[in-house]
Amino acid sequence: MPSLDDVTRPPGRPPRILYGGDWNPEQWPEETWTEDVRLMRRAGVTSVTLGVFSWARIEPSPGKREFDWLDRLMDLTHTHGIGVVLATPTSSPPPWMGRLHPETLPRDEDGRTEWWGSRQHFSHSSEVYRQYAASITEDLAARYAGHPALTMWHINNEYCTYDWGDEAARTFRRWLQDRYGTLDALNTAWGTDFWSQRYGDWAEVLPPRRAHYLKNPAHVLDFRRYTSDQLLACYRAERDIVRRHTPDLPVTTNFMPFWSGQDGWTWAAEEDLVSVDVYPDPRDPGSAAYNAMIGDLTRSQAGGGPWMVMEQAAGAVNWRGVNHPKPYGLNRLWALQAIAHGADAVCYFQWRQSRQGAEKFHSGMLGHAGERGRVFQETVRIGEDLARLGPRVAGSRVTTGIAVLHDWNSWWAGDQEGALSRRVDHAEIVGAWHRALWDAHLPASFAHPHHDLGCHRLVLVPHLYLLDDTAIDNLVAYVRGGGTLVCGFLTGIADQDDRVRPGGMDARLCELLGIDLLQEWWPLDEGEHVDCGTFRGTLWSEELIAAPGAETVAAYRGGELDGLPAVLRNGRARYLTTLPEPAALSRLLSAVAEEAGVRPVVDGLPADVEAVRRGDLLFLLRHGHDPVTVTLPGRHRDLLTGTEIAGALKLERYGVAVLEVSGAQVPEPADAGTREEHGPGARPVPEGRR
Ligand code: GAL
C-alpha cells in the first residue's frame, strides 16, 4: 500500500501535503465548475473530495445510474492536475429509498422513525439499505477504477447513527449470540438476576429501548459495542468492494473527533489512512489544546504515522448556538498545527460555500465574499505555506515520550445512568489530563491499554473505569519493566462486563498502586473542592487506606477524608484519588515526566506558544492575540519565511515558525522518551504498494 503522498503526487514531483476539501459542485451550474478549478489552482488545492452526498444525483430512481456529470467533473479535475478523493455516497440515501423501503429508516429509542429530509437516515442493519449501498459502491468503483484523477476512497461520511428498530433488534441478537454463545452466558454477563431481567428466549432480547427506570448498564454497554461493530460492518462491505477494483488506492472514512459512537482503535485498524473532521470553536480559549489532543489521538490511531484532516472549517460553522468566524490567521494557525501533530493532509468542508440548503451559513474555503474575500485570501496563503513545507514535512514522524491511555469500552461503560456522579465525564477528564501536558509543553501520544507500552517513558491513565484482565496485566508488566505510571481515580473498577471487581478495585491494581483498602467514593458537587495541602482537588475524592510501604504524597486536609491519601505513590506508580485543578495537575504531571526523563521540547516557552517536533523540524505556534518573543539556542532557518533566526524569534498574533533544527540544539523528544509505536490494534499508514 502506498503512502497518501505516493498516490496523490504527480510523477516526478517532490513530496507534498494534500490540500483541498469537499467539493459539492452538483449545487452549481457547470460554468461555476470551471471557475472553481481556476480558483483551486490559484489556492494551491491539490485534492477535492467528490460525491459525499451525491446518491440521489447518481441514482435518481432505483437502479438507474447517472454518471455523466461525475465523469465530466473527474475529467475536469484531472485536466487541472487536481486529485480526487471519491466518496461512496451512502450516508444519505435518496428519498425514494425511504418511501419504497421504510425499513431502511432508523428508529430512535422511543420507536420514532428518523425520516428523510436531512441526512444519515439509514439503518445500519437494513438488508435493503446494505444491498443498495453495495450496488452503488460497486458501480462507482467499476466506473472510476482506472480514472487518472482518482487518488483515494472515502467511505460514507462520519458513521454515527444508532438504531433501536426491529431489524436492529434481530442483528443485535445475532451479535450477542456471537459474543456469548448461549443465553445463560448472556444472563451471567449482564447480571440479569437483578430486577427480574433474566431472559428465557433470545426473542426477548431487545435493543435498550425507552424503559421505566435505569436500564441494565451491561446491556447498554453491549448495545454500544454492537452499534460500533454494525457500522464497521457497513464500512467494511464498501471498503472491500472498492479495494477489489482499486487494490492500490488507500481507503478511509472520516471520524468525528473524539466521538463516543465508534471504537476508534478497532476502526482505525481497518483503514489504510486515518482521517478526522475537526471543528473547534474559534472563541473557545481551550480550542488550541483540543486541536492538539485530536491530532495526537488521530496520529496514534494511525500507529504514529501520518494522518489526514478530512474536514475543518475555513471560518464559522453553523451548528453551535452562536457561530463565530475565525479571525484572520486562525485558520492558517490551526491548519499548520495539524501538520505539526503529524497530518499529511489538511482539507475542509467545503470548497465553495453553499447558497442553498442547511449549510449555507457554514463557511467554505471560498466564501460568499468570493475571490476578494479575506477567507479566500487566507485559503491561498495556506496553500502557499503547505507547498513550501510539503517536501520537508510529508511522511515524517512526530515523537513523544508520553502515552495517554484511552479506550472506548471504558468510556461507554463509565457513561451510565446509575453512576455515582453524572459530573464524571470520560472525555472531559481525558481532555483535562492532555491539557495539563499541553500547558506544560509536553508532547504526548495516545495508546490502547492493550498496546505494548514499553516504548513510552511515562504512561498516564486519566480515566479507565473498565479494564479487562489483559489490560491490568499489561499495566503491571509495564511498571515492572521500568515504566512510570500515573492513574486517575476510578481506574479499573469494572471488568469487561461492567462488573465491579471484588473489593471495588482489582487486587493486582491495588498492589501496583499501593492501596490496602478502598473504602468509599466521595464525589464532589459543582464548585466543591477538597483541600489537598499543596493543591485543590475537584470532581471526586476517595476514602482509601494506603498499603504499608506506599507513600502518601499529598493528603486531604479537613473534612471526612482528613489525612487520607489524595496522591498515593508506590514506587514508579502513582494514584490520584481526585482531579487536581488544572495548574496543579500540570505541575504534578511535569514533575513526574521529568523524573521519568521526559522534558518539554523547548524550555521556558511562554504560555500559549506550542512547540512540536516533527522529524527534524520544530513547529512553534502562537495561540494568542499578542506578539511574543521566544528565545532559542543556536541559529535556525524558518522554512515559511526563509529567514535565519538567531537567539530570539518574534511570533506575531497567530504566528507560526517552522524551524530546521539540529538535534543538539533542540533535543528530539525521543532523546528523552522513545519513538511512538503501537502494538496490535493500530497500524501505520502503509508505505509500500499492496
Ligand atoms: C461534518 C460533515 C460535513 C458538514 C460539516 C459541517 O460533520 O461531515 O458534511 O456537515 O460537518 O461542519
Automatic annotation (TrEMBL):
Region annotation Disordered: where it falls in the sequence: 666-690
Pfam hit, one: Glyco_hydro_42C
KW Hydrolase (keyword) present: yes
Nucleotidyltransferase as UniProt keyword: no
UniProt-listed CDD domains: A4_beta-galactosidase_middle_domain
Single GO MF annotation: beta-galactosidase activity
Reactions it catalyzes: Hydrolysis of terminal non-reducing beta-D-galactose residues in beta-D-galactosides
Start and end residues of each Glycoside hydrolase family 42 N-terminal domain: 22-388
Keywords, comma-separated and alphabetical: Glycosidase, Hydrolase
Domain Beta-galactosidase trimerisation, chain residue ranges per copy: 402-598
Domain Beta-galactosidase C-terminal: 608-660
InterPro entries: Beta_galactosidase_C, Beta_galactosidase_Trimer, Class_I_gatase-like, GH, Glyco_hydro_42, Glyco_hydro_42_N, Glyco_hydro_b
Matches recorded under SUPFAM superfamilies: (Trans)glycosidases, Class I glutamine amidotransferase-like
Basic and acidic residues composition-biased segments: 673-690
Enzyme class, spelled out: hydrolase
E.C. designation(s): 3.2.1.23
Family classification: Belongs to the glycosyl hydrolase 42 family.
UniProt xrefs under PANTHER family: BETA-GALACTOSIDASE GANA
Protein name: Beta-galactosidase
Organism, scientific name: Streptomyces flavochromogenes
